[in-house]
Amino acid sequence: MNFRFSVPSTVLFGSGVSQTVGEEAKKLGMKKALVVIDPGLKAAGIADKIESALSRESVAYVVFDRVEPNPSDSIVEQGAILARKEKVDGVIGVGGGSAMDVGKAINVLLTNPSPINQYDGLGLLQNPPGPMIAIPTTAGTGSEVTEFCVITDTKRIKKMVIGPNTGATLALVDPDLTVGLPPAVTAATGLDALTHAIEAYVSVAASIPSDILALEAVRIISRNIKEATNNGVNLEAREAMILGSMIAGYAFNNAVLGLAHSMAHPLSAHCGIPHGVANAICLPYVLEYNIPAATKKIADIALAMGAAPGGTDEEVAQRGVRIVRDMCAELKIPRLSECGVSEELFQRLSEDALNEVSTLFNPRKPTLAEILELYKKAY
Ligand SMILES: NC(=O)c1ccc[n+]([C@@H]2O[C@H](COP(=O)([O-])OP(=O)(O)OC[C@H]3O[C@@H](n4cnc5c(N)ncnc54)[C@H](O)[C@@H]3O)[C@@H](O)[C@H]2O)c1
Ligand SMILES: [Zn+2]
Fold it and tell me: Residues near ligand 1 with C-beta < 6 Å?
C-alpha cells in the first residue's frame, strides 16, 4: 500500500470560533491583514463581525471585497496589488470557496511574482506564502482545509493552483456563520460537498484514510442536507453540514475528484452556473456511468445514504443513484436545459471536461463521446 495523506490547515471548530480571529491572527504574527470577502457577505453582516473581532485585538486590516462567484484571475491580481500597496503580512479569506480561494491566491502572490496563472498545476510555487486564515461561510467547498485554489482564467478555463503551500495555515470553522445562508445556496453548496465525498471515495487515488473520511462525510451530509436547507436555523444540522463538508475536504485533498467536477467546471466557466449547482446537475449521471468501474464502492455509498440492503452490489448501487437523483429534485436543482445552456456548447464543454485534471482520477475513463452523452442526459 502506498499513499500520501496531507492535512494542510490546523482547524479550530465550533460555535463562535470565528470570533477568535483577532487572537489567532496575532499568534500567527499578523500585524496588518488583508480581509478578502464578497459583497454578499458584507450585506449579510459577516464582514462586520470579523472586522470587530480584529479591532478588539488591535490587529490592523484592509478589506478587499470585490470577490465574485467562480472568481477570475483579474480579481486576484487586483487584490494582490492592494495587498502589496498596503504591505499586509497575512490574509484572512472569509466566505464560500470563492472568497477563500481568492484569499489563498492573493497570499501566494505576496511571496511569488504575478501572474497567478503561471502556478496552475501541482507544486509550482517558488516561495512558501506567509500566514493565511480561512473562515468558511458555506458548508460546501472544504477549501478551508484543502491545498486547492480554483481560479478561472481569461480563456474561461478553471485553473487549479495546487500544492503543499497553497492551503490556509489555520481554518476557523464556525457553524454559526452559515445560519443565514439562503436555502438554495445551502442546497447547492451541500451537494457540492456530497460530490466531493462521493468522488473522493471512488477515485483511483483513494486510500484507507481518505475512504474513512469520504464515507463518513457521505453519511453526515446525506442525513442533514434537507433539514439544513428547509430549516436553516437548526444549528445541529448546520454544524453537521459544515463538519461533513470539512471532512469531505480532507478526503478529496488527498484522493482528488472525478468526472462530475470535470463536467461542472466548464459549466461554471462558460455558462456562469454556480459550482454546487453544476456539480449537482452532473452527479447522478456520472455516478450511474461509474457503476461498472466501481460497483462495490458505489454500493457502499448507497448504504451510507440509507439505501435498503439486499440484492447484488449493482442493484444496491442503482438504489444509490436514485437516492441522489431524488435528493437533487427535492432540493430543487434544475436540469441543464433550465439553466440557459445552449446544446451547441456541448462539444466545447465536453472537450474542456476531458482535459480537466479530475478526469484522470475518475474510476471509469471516459471518451469525448461519452461525456457529450452525459451532458445530453443531464439536459
Ligand atoms: N479550493 C477548493 O478546495 C475548492 C473546492 C470546491 C470548490 N471550489 C471553488 O469554490 C467556488 C464556489 O464556492 P461556494 O460554492 O462556497 O460559493 P461562493 O463562495 O461563490 O458563494 C456563493 C454565494 O453565497 C453567498 N454566501 C456565502 N456565505 C453566505 C452566508 N453565510 N450568508 C449569506 N450569503 C452567503 C456569497 O455572497 C455568494 O453570493 C468555486 O469557484 C469553486 O470552483 C474550491
Ligand atoms: Zn466542488
Answer: 38, 40-41, 44, 69-70, 95-99, 101, 137-138, 140-143, 146, 148-150, 177-178, 180-181, 185, 189, 192, 275-276
Cα angle, residue 179 at apex, residues 214 and 42 outer, rounded to 5°? 110
- Among residues 38, 65, 253, 34, the alpha carbon closest in space to that of 129 is found at 34
Number of neighbours of residue 332 by Cβ within 10 angstroms: 12
What is the DSSP pairing of strand 158-162 with strand 148-152? antiparallel
d(CA 82, CA 179) in angstroms, rounded, equals 31
| Separation of CA 22 and ligand 1 centre (Å) | 23
Ligand 1: atom nearest CA of 265 is: 43
**How far apart are alpha carbons 168 and 359 in whole angstroms?**
26
Which pLDDT value is given to residue 347? 97
Please, which pLDDT band fits residue 2 given cuts at 50, 70 and 90? Answer: confident
CB atoms within 10 A of CB 130: 16
Q: Whose CA is nearest to atom 9 of ligand 1?
A: 97
CA–CA gap between residue 167 and residue 108 (Å, rounded)? 10
Q: Residue 164's pLDDT is what?
A: 85
DSSP bridge partners of 64: 36
pLDDT tens for each residue of 214-246: 999 999 999 999 999 999 999 999 999 999 999
HSE-CB of 43 using CA atoms within 13 angstroms: 6
Residues with Cβ within 8 Å of 146's Cβ and at least 6 positions away in sequence, in order, are 8, 167, 249, 252, 253
Q: What is the dihedral of CA 209, 215, 181, 186, to 10 degrees?
A: 140
Question: Phi-psi bin for 16: left (phi > 0), alpha (psi -120 to 50), beta?
Answer: left
Q: Note the pLDDT tens digit of each residue in 60-86.
A: 999 999 999 999 999 999 999 999 999
Q: Compute CA 50 distance to the chain's CA centroid, rounded to the nearest angstrom.
A: 22
The domains found in the chain, sorted by start residue, are 10-178 (3.40.50.1970), 183-378 (1.20.1090.10)
In this structure, are residues 18 and 156 in contact, taking their beta carbons and an 8 Å threshold? no
Residue with cell 479591532: 55
Judging by DSSP bridges, how do beta strands 121-122 and 132-136 pair with one another?
unpaired
Average pLDDT value for residue range 311-316? 98
Instruction: Report the amino acid identity of residue 193.
Output: A
